[in-house]
Amino acid sequence: MKRSKTLKEVFGIQHTRTDAVKLGGSQLRSVILNEIREVLKEDADPKAVDPERFPLPLSAVAGDKDKAMQLTQSGKDDVDGGKADDVIGVGGASFSVSDLKPSQSSMNIEKALSMALGMIRDDQAGGDLGAFISSDKHIMDGHHRWVATAMVDPSAEIGGYGVEFPADKLIPVLNALTVGRFGVTAGKPATGGFDQFKEGPIRDQLDAYLQSGAYQMDPEVVQQTIEKFTGEVGEAAVDAAVAKFVDNLGAVKFDLPGGAPSREDMPVIDEPNVPDAVAALSAGDIDVNEPYGWEEGEEKDVKTTESQFSRDDVILERWRKMAGLLTD
Fold first, then answer.
1. pTM
2. Rg for the chain, CA atoms, rounded
3. Which residue, 132, 138, 178, is CA-closest to 260?
4. What confidence tens digit (pLDDT) does each residue in 299-320 have?
């Protein structure tokens, strides 16, 4: 008797024909679809992202909200032999703060230094940004925590969501999500630039905190905190703290991604929307690569485009032809 090919032999899957025929129709459909999608999965290619479909600045995306809605919901409309060609890998990631880089220059020393002092007081440098980190290690948000940690301890670990896309391609995709999925059409205002993170501005801000106090710290606590940080007392602690902050900042790179827009044109994906954004990226919801599920000028509702049933039938037919496990 001729032995049937196993799914492992055909696709690398651990089921045989005998296993398959024991399943009911709906169960078999579910098993096959899940296994086919996993085996034939094809990750999105950042080099193939069309800049005309995904412009870099948020303002350019906000000009056509309907288009952004289509592009961020039609990735699963692709019928490409079962390949999930719009899947962008996302996972938890942790890096030394010195390994990370900013994606925008808008930070202010007042907020950053206050956070740094709080980290020293509480012995809690680093932490989870709760933000996306590109494959070339640019952070998409959480810049004040990043730079504050760098001021205190550039070897400290910072966590977030690692995305398998470089920053210059991730920014336009996240901008499309910002507008099309979360309805945000205006970026956050810019405050200040990298020139604040030098000796003069740092000293001026520390002096201000020693006079008037910082966030949840009165002047006495600020003094105690910098003495703890430096091992010095009195005015010597001020000089030593400024020198240490500046020296620590020398361990990080203030390098922006190529062509990065200003803060007002950057993505706005705040904490409540992060899980949905993670799901959209990893599920292939965003139509980033050809073949496209939606073309500009088409009149169709993303909620009533090609049904899941018909899409699944295409995948089933491919499986049937290749494995020969379903009867005609």
1. 0.76
2. 26
3. 138
4. 545 443 343 344 445 445 555 5
